[in-house]
Write a structure and sequence with these properties.
CATH topology: Pnp Oxidase, Chain A
Shape: globular
Number of helices: 3
Largest sheet: 8 strands, antiparallel
Oligomer: single chain
Number of domains: 1
Helix content: 10-25%
Structural class: alpha+beta
């Protein structure tokens, strides 16, 4: 399993992130997510609160990719793994509380991704697997 470093956690917290999913038929979808955070060395979470396409895709196909980049400094990372939908319990309640503080609607779910692979997609390491 890939390990998320402190530098990677900082990048995820400070830069826009996009989550790629696919339907059970393989039709791709990508969406910006403003709540992407690494919660430890192996997991990334985000609140799913918008149109539910990401939520529905994960229900049928849990494989996801998350990309975050600092284009000004040519840093970019892609995290791939399997997602789990959390719709109740302490983790979900905390995410709902944070969304409320940001003036956002309550999430449909908190998504927890177990990171399996990490790739450097910025220059000069473009395409290099990290782990």
């Amino acid at each position: 399993m890939a390990k998320i470093t402190e530098e990677m956690k900082t990048l995820l917290k400070s830069q826009p992130a996009y989550v790629a999913t696919a339907t059970s038929d393989g039709i791709p979808s990508i969406a910006p997510k403003g709540t992407v955070r690494a919660i430890d060395d192996e997991h990334i979470t985000f609140a799913e609160a918008a149109g539910k396409r990401t939520y529905d895709n994960i229900k049928h196909n849990p494989k996801v990719a998350i990309i975050a980049g600092d284009l000004a400094n040519m840093k970019c990372l892609r995290f791939s793994g399997s997602a789990e939908l959390i719709t109740e319990g302490p983790e979900f309640d905390k995410a709902a509380e944070n969304m409320k503080k940001m003036g956002m609607p309550a999430p449909h779910a908190l998504v927890r991704v177990t990171v399996e692979e990490i790739y450097d997609c910025g220059a000069p390491g473009f395409g290099k697997r990290i782990d």
